[in-house]
Hints:
The protein is α/β, with parallel strands linked by helices. Helices cover 28% and strands 16% of the residues.
Amino acid sequence: MRSFLAxxxxxxxxxxxxxxxxxxxxxxWPGAAPGDSVDLPPEADTSKPDAxxxxxxxxxxxxxxxxxxxxxxxxxxxxxxxxAIVVCPGGxxxxxxxxxxxxxxxxxxxxxxxxxxxxxxxxxxxxxxxPRLAPLQDAQRALGLVRQKSSEWGIDANRVGILGFSxxxxxxxxxxxxxxxxxxxxxxxxxxxxxRPDFAILVYPAxxxxxxxxxxxxxxxxxxxxxxxxxxxxxxxxxxxVEGPIFYSLAxxxxxxxxELHTYxxxxxxxxxxxxxxxxxxxxxxxxxxxNTRGLLKSSK
Length: 301
């Protein structure tokens, strides 16, 4: 086990060393978010003292997000490839695993020359809105804003991807298949820019298929030839069900959309990129390989 973990621990140390200070968060919406009139308690970490840890470390479970933001984690200047990825933490659309599936991921992306944009989207679900509408609006808006700021941030507007975990993986897939029009009235010039990710990375994605029909995609997964190229990683013992990415992959294949799917026997759910004894936690290396072979890490210089 020690030899298995050594390279991963080394890569995480490199990631930490390569980490640049993030910019100040930017509010997604100039005023109140569209259709959002809910009165939530203050935004806060909802983790309890006895909450489950991951790889021996605690997890920030951010709840009551009423003011969504994006935060740029710029890649180091000497490694900046120009690529950017919007990062969507998971949490069942109830909370956001803000460090495990957010800040730690942004730091790793910086280590491979990718500009990371942490999306803090609205949770929990709004009772007065259709399910998961608010997060989709936030993701669409985020992609438009990143493209609007691409020159200022040193980003290639044609290499803006999205990465999500669990519910965040569903969100990444949702915006990948629902980008032809905004799910809200346009506000400014950022909403005139494309909200289609150039590529998507789904790590243990949830809700891709119907709960009672695991071989049928959820209705919002309208896979077409315009669905972006996609990487997926999942374990066979994940309670969220490995069938989701399998049937999503078949839909991508039918539409001739390039994809790469990695399934692993064990590892469960919710590991982020914290290394453990399961081989699934090598998925970051597989993502880097995939991005290289797809030309997504080509230097913009």
